[in-house]
Amino acid sequence: MITLSGVHKTFGTNAVLRGVDLSVAKGESMVVIGGSGTGKSVLIKSVLGLVKPDSGTITVDGKDVNKGDRDAFLARFGMLFQGGALFDSLPVWQNVAFRLLRGSLKKPKDQARAIAVEKLRRVGLGSDVADRLPAELSGGMQKRVGLARAIAAEPEIIFFDEPTTGLDPIMAGVINDLIREIVTEMGATAVTITHDMTSVRAIADKVAMLHAGKIRWTGPVGDMDASGDPYVDQFIHGRATGPIAAVR
Amino acid sequence: MIGALASLGAGVLGLLAAIGRLAAFTGQTISHLVRPPFYGREFATALLQIGYFSLPVVGLTAFFTGGALALQIYSGGARFNAESVVPQIVAIGMVRELGPVLVGLMIAARVTSSIAAEIATMKVTEQIDALVTLSTHPMKYLTLPRVLAATLVMPILVGVGDIIGIYGGFLVGTERLGFNAAAYLQNTADFLEPSDIVSSLAKGAVFGFIAALMGCYYGMNSERGAMGVGRATKSSVVAAAILILTANFLLTEAFFSA
């Protein structure tokens, strides 16, 4: 279980997180929604230790994320970054197998490549893609390679940062279906941040809305439309008028 | 008056903070040298990129500088009938000063800028964050291999630059200024001392360390966007060039002040 309790984070004068409390149960697919610049990325980066909160506690299975063996901790996670964050200088298969080629999960090169090709196949990419460089791929293919990399080491917990941003609706649908399938078949805990409502409905078991640095509402995805919260209603229906200021 | 003093104070504090950050970064880089894992493949790639692929620019720079130096010494020496010292002055000038400094500055232009731009781009595209999530320390994976490779390969580049620079002077001296080839080489060999060569190679190692460290430091601390990458690249080259020239003065003072 991932638990955030009273997490605060300020950048300069900009208080991004102002006391976030959130729990994600094991095997659950939680989607965090919220407007641009509301701190969704900061939230998941805080869990991974990429951003250090000013105060509050973040635990995974009861252990503080900022204490203990970092390598062992990070080995439990996979992450799909918004822009893919593929390493330009490495061919696709080495990107996917990055963790399998070094560190505590290191495997023989042939075995690592075979796993990479299998993961690429799992996300709908052929073996011909394996030896290409990331720059030679389209945005949708890069996203799928990023997804393959996130699942390559079969992590217990997977984070997806804006998985469909910049993709056409069909490719976004493909990515949404892949995420749902992979999370279900791996039994992984997933946290996705997005403002794409189609993604939310396709991926989520539970939804949390982040607004003004706090979790405004949380509940099962089926309850989202009847949340009774004007902020959630405005957001999920994409209305320009409501309690959330359109100009921020 | 108070406003001016406040600005001065803020500037001094900013400078001290920057020195502190750079010192901490340097310490971290060195500390990773003795802590596994060591990424041999990245180190080998850095050796190739910084060393082998810099040879053409180093060779051309040294060759033309050595030739121009021979012409200058010949025409300048002619004012007091000292044309014959061309081989000795070219040798000492190239080995003690021009070889290491010019190679250092060329490496700052070619390698520091490249490292800074690459790492800064990795930072703004979240590749550095991705490295962390893949249990790979960015300092170990990106900084240490480059800094170590530059420190080890720069003495070789400086040595090659020294030889090519002397050869440039030799060609001009024998083909253009009428020196006897055997006598030119004999004078060069007789005049150079082991300490000249040691100082040249030691300067190379220090300049290589500075050049790669500045590229990594500014890359890792880049701000967002294309402007951030551009600023990091520019700042890294400027800082590397200034630090190389400063270190050159201090090392010259240390080696030759007696």
Structural shape of chain B: globular
Q: How many domains of chain B, as an integer?
A: 1
Largest interface by Cβ-Cβ < 8 Å: A-B, 25 and 14 residues
Unreliable stretches of chain B:
none
In which range does the helix fraction of chain B lie? over 70%
CATH superfamily of the largest domain in chain A: P-loop containing nucleotide triphosphate hydrolases
- Number-wise, the strands of chain A total 10
What low-confidence regions of chain A span 5 or more consecutive residues with pLDDT below 50?
none
Query: Would you tell me the structural class of the helices and strands of chain B?
Result: mainly alpha
Summarize the structure.
The complex is a heterodimer of chains A (248) and B (258). Chain A is of the alpha/beta class and 248 residues long.
Task: Detail the topology: elements first, then pairings.
The complex is a heterodimer of chains A (about 250) and B (about 260).
Chain A: E1 2-11, E2 14-24, E3 29-33, H1 40-48, E4 55-60, E5 63-64, H2 70-74, E6 77-80, H3 92-96, H4 109-122, H5 139-151, E7 157-161, H6 169-186, E8 189-193, H7 197-203, E9 206-211, E10 214-220, H8 230-237
Parallel strand pairs in A: 3-8, 3-9, 6-7, 7-8
Antiparallel strand pairs in A: 1-2, 1-4, 4-5, 9-10
Helix pairs in contact in A: 4-5, 5-6, 6-7
Chain B: H1 2-33, H2 40-50, H3 55-77, H4 86-124, H5 127-133, H6 138-175, H7 181-191, H8 194-220, H9 225-256
Helix pairs in contact in B: 1-6, 2-6, 3-4, 3-6, 4-6, 4-7, 4-8, 4-9, 6-7, 6-8, 8-9
Can you tag this structure with a few keywords?
heterodimer, A: 248 residues, alpha/beta, Rossmann fold, four-stranded antiparallel sheet, 8 helices, 32% helix, 25% strand, globular, B: 258 residues, mainly alpha, 0% strand
